[in-house]
């Protein structure tokens, strides 16, 4: 699957919109860069006894106790059964400058996303804490709205409520590209609704605009130091329309840093499981992501240094999708099974990553794919793929590992490629005619008609 299958018009527009926002976390990036400078270039004494000093977020004491609120359906500091009670707890923690929201066992039904805050630990009670997305409602817009408007008129407002999270979609009237806007309904008169923020895009009847109650279950922008642990997220895909991973998922993060997601089950979203875009130092560990129509785990455009370890991914369209410019990451000891297309997909400038000790079984098209992209300089170069197992992946003429385009400077070391369904015309490694500097070292290749198909010859 190439990046063109992911709608290049939408992606270019998405990246163009997002790029202006990167400056907001540049201070955090600068601080991290300072920490990694060699000691000989910085002669300041080390910080050995940090104090809480106003404005100093780089060093802080490790406190024995932080502010904590418990949230439950029948017990806890705050009680309720929807996103509003969780959001109230998060907002209170935000006012305190950080702390923990502890979700007690129970099922919370969401009509809008829970928007996270910096310095937050959101921790559930394991699989007994379940956040479920309510069924989506949808309607065409019945009147034009201009980019400066803060309201819409629906053709049919049934199923919509004040407080709902919505997604507005249309064909852009100026360039025919896709317009996608996420907002919240904050007031209504009949089918006329006020939005929490202005549109900043034109929604004209010529572009066939629609509204639907679609949103990520957990989301955040411009955040740092967030941990999400030990809970289950249910996207209820059978009763929801699709919203792809550039905008949503069970978890969707944009322009964030220093994020940890551990022990989370993300299931059945009509889109992606866990997606993070332009987010740095994200750890996703010991999670399960399954049953999505989109991507299981989606380290998104420009994301630096992700750590993706010990996860189970199953029943998605793509298992682990390295998006654009994902660099210096680690994908280790993940189990990826029964994926409809590619188990692991690497492409547009996804460089200098390590893909180690993963198991990929029964992918529909290919076990590990390096996408062709636009040519030299655009491909996923300088990656190391070591000690992985790829088993029974692709059709009768497919490759377990398919390296396409001008992809260069890859090392495949001590991987095991196995085919138990019979050789047919199946290939272990397929090297495209324009690939170069691909090292195959000590790999085990069993059960294929062709062990290595080298089209460069």
UniProtKB/TrEMBL annotation:
Gene3D superfamilies listed in its UniProt record: Single-stranded right-handed beta-helix, Pectin lyase-like
Spans annotated as Disordered: 26-58
Signal peptide: none
Location of the Right handed beta helix domain: 250-415
Compositional bias annotation for Basic and acidic residues: 34-46
SMART domains linked: PbH1
Protein name: Right handed beta helix domain-containing protein
């Amino acid at each position: 699957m190439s990046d063109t299958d992911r709608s290049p018009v939408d992606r270019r527009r998405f990246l163009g919109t997002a790029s202006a926002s990167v400056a907001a976390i540049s201070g955090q990036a600068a601080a991290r860069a300072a920490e990694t400078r060699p000691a000989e270039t910085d002669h300041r004494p080390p910080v050995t006894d940090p104090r809480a000093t106003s404005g100093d977020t780089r060093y802080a004491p490790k406190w024995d106790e932080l502010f904590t609120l418990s949230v439950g359906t029948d017990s806890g500091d705050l009680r309720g059964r929807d996103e509003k009670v969780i959001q109230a707890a998060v907002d209170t923690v935000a006012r305190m400058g950080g702390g923990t929201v502890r979700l007690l066992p129970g099922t919370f039904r969401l009509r809008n996303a829970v928007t996270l805050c910096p310095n937050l630990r959101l921790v559930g009670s394991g699989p007994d804490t379940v956040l479920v997305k309510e069924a989506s409602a949808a309607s065409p817009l019945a009147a034009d709205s201009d980019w400066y408007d803060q309201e819409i008129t629906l053709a049919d407002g049934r199923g919509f409520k004040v407080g709902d999270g919505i997604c507005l979609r249309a064909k852009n009237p100026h360039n025919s590209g896709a317009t996608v806007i996420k907002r919240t309904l904050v007031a209504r008169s009949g089918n006329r609704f006020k939005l929490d923020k202005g549109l900043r895009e034109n929604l004209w009847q010529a572009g066939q605009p629609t509204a639907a109650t679609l949103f990520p279950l957990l989301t955040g922008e411009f955040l740092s130091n967030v941990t999400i642990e030990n809970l289950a997220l249910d996207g209820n895909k059978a009763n929801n329309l699709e919203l792809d991973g550039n905008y949503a998922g069970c978890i969707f993060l944009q322009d964030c840093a220093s994020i940890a997601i551990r022990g989370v089950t993300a299931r059945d979203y009509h889109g992606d499981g866990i997606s993070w875009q332009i987010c740095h130092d994200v750890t996703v560990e010991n999670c399960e992501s399954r049953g999505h129509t989109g991507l299981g785990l989606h380290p998104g455009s420009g994301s630096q240094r992700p750590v993706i370890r010990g996860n189970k991914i199953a029943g998605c369209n793509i298992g682990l999708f390295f998006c654009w410019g994902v660099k210096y990451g680690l994908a280790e000891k993940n189990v990826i099974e029964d994926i409809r297309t590619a188990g692991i997909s690497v492409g547009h400038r996804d460089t200098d990553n390590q893909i180690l000790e993963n198991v990929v079984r029964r992918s529909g098209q290919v076990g590990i794919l390096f996408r062709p992209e636009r040519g030299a300089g655009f491909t996923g170069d300088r990656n190391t793929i070591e000690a992985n197992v790829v088993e029974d992946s692709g059709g009768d003429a497919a490759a377990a590992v398919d390296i396409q385009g001008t992809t260069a400077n890859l090392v495949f070391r001590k991987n095991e490629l196995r085919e138990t369904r019979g050789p047919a015309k199946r290939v272990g490694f397929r090297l495209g005619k324009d690939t170069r500097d691909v090292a195959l070292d000590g790999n085990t290749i069993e059960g294929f008609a062709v062990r290595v198909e080298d089209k460069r010859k």
